[in-house]
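Good morning,

Attaching, inline, the backbone tokens for the sequence recovery test we're adding to the shared suite. The designed sequence is right after.
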């Protein structure tokens, strides 16, 4: 066939091509280089000793990097095991949903039907709590109750079902389904339910239903696998300096936070979730994916939480992200699914502390924003941690010096003083000295969590409490001695002279 006006055809083709957005081949590498630089900057800003991250597609990692050293002072690679904290929750929810899909468990099953001794909030409240409530964090368990049942390190720790007894006397936030409150106790309860249904340890169920199918061959789900992977200790900031102090492991805590592995394992779970509901061998059905990634409601408003996932809650271009973050003492991790791009970002690092949460987690949030085409906001600082710890340390130092000075005064001859001055000065020192001790006593039920999560602040408070108590005691002894000295015949005249002098100055 002859084309009568070939130039028109060429012009049309050129116009069509010009309308097609063409991404230069270098665009993605440039974006990854930008993310690399940003993550390195955040790593330096927070003093994180080691970090690894990956951009993941449905088939696995597309881009990955690792820097720094681990708690054994060895170089961090994609094969270095870390703990993931609450990133364990979507993994646990996936394992629970496999039981729902098989018909062995129902989302609206009552927990007491599988755990007859479950008595959280009393029998009446406990009898209304369902599996859906636990998954969606709406069982009414207060966040403060978390430490009653979590972070049990060492041998001899009770199994999940036995730990739940500690919730019996906890006052619920409201009827089940009416209040959202994020608490790892919900997921410890889910592990107890899964063990009851399957008759096997939760770690075994996790391996069979999620870790194995996902290809997470190096995942850590119990103390035995932690030893097998030679899990290094994580790091916490002690007075602003990273220290490899966190090496405790909860043998029955995989469901809520003590799950881990290397970067390849974390990327494998992200890839599994990107494939979820899209064909055979993806573990989750379309309906399970929909339910897990659908925001729940409580009290007539959205919770920002699905079934094991945080849903939305972030500004564009992360407004449609499905995500979760997590931290255990010394380790932190983040996972972001970006549906529009059909990619995920995973990041874990061997540094975490409660008072540095925002500063540490910014590495993942900023990297995800860059991946989605956005720009990270100004990074938060860890100034709250530094001010708190150094402020408490300064208080402890001042009280220690005050105790030393009081001890020196006791070794010197007594100096007469008026009753008013004696009472005023002594009362002031006793109040200042007793303050740290009173503050510590109000937190007496949280001693173990404080030791685990904020060891430097805990040590500073203890030092301040001891120094303050010593100061208060020595000042009381000093006041008694001074008072007795003022009453003796030899000093009564001198004391009267002091009083007259003060009255004269008052005029």
């Amino acid at each position: 066939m002859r084309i009568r006006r070939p130039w028109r055809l060429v012009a049309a083709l050129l116009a069509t091509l010009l309308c097609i957005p063409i991404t230069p081949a270098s665009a993605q590498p440039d974006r990854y280089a930008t993310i690399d630089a940003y993550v390195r900057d955040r790593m330096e800003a927070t003093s994180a000793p080691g970090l690894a991250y990956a951009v993941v597609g449905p088939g696995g990692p597309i881009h990955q990097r690792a820097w720094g050293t681990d708690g054994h002072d060895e170089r961090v690679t994609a094969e270095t095991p870390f703990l993931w904290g609450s990133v364990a929750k979507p993994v646990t929810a996936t394992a629970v949903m496999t039981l729902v899909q098989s018909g062995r468990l129902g989302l609206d099953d009552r927990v007491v039907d599988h755990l007859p001794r479950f008595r959280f909030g009393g029998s009446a409240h406990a009898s209304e709590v369902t599996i859906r409530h636990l998954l969606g964090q709406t069982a009414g368990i207060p966040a403060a109750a978390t430490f009653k049942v979590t972070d049990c390190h060492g041998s001899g720790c009770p199994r999940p079902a036995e730990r739940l007894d500690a919730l019996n006397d906890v006052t619920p936030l409201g009827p089940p389904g009416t209040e959202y409150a994020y608490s790892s106790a919900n997921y410890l309860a889910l592990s107890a339910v899964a063990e009851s249904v399957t008759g096997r340890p939760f770690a075994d169920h996790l391996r069979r239903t999620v870790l194995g199918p996902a290809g997470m061959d190096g995942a850590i789900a119990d103390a035995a696998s932690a030893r097998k992977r030679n899990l290094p200790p994580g790091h916490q900031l002690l007075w602003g300096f990273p220290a490899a102090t966190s090496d405790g492991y909860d043998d029955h805590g995989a469901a809520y936070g003590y799950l881990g592995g290397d970067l390849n394992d974390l990327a494998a779970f992200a890839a599994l979730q990107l494939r979820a509901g899209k064909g055979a061998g993806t573990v989750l059905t379309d309906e399970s994916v929909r339910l897990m990634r659908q925001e729940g409601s409580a009290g007539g408003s959205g919770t920002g939480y699905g079934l094991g996932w945080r849903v939305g809650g972030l500004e564009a271009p992360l407004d449609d992200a499905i995500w979760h973050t997590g931290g255990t003492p010394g380790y932190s991790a983040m996972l972001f699914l970006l549906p529009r791009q059909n990619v995920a970002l995973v990041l874990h690092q061997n540094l975490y502390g409660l008072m540095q949460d925002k500063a540490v987690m910014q590495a993942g949030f900023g990297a995800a924003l860059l991946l989605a085409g956005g720009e990270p906001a100004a990074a938060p600082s860890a100034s709250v941690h530094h001010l708190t710890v150094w402020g408490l340390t300064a208080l402890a130092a001042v009280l220690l010096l005050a105790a030393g000075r009081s001890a020196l005064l006791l070794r010197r001859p007594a100096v007469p003083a008026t009753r008013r001055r004696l009472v005023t000065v002594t009362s002031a020192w006793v109040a200042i000295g007793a303050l740290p001790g009173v503050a510590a006593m109000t937190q007496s039920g949280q001693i173990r969590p404080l030791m685990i999560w904020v060891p430097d602040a805990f040590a500073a408070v203890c030092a301040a409490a001891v120094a303050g108590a010593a100061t208060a005691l020595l000042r009381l002894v000093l006041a008694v001695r001074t008072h007795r000295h003022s009453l003796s015949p030899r000093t009564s005249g001198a004391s009267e002279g002091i009083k007259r002098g003060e009255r004269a100055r008052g005029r």
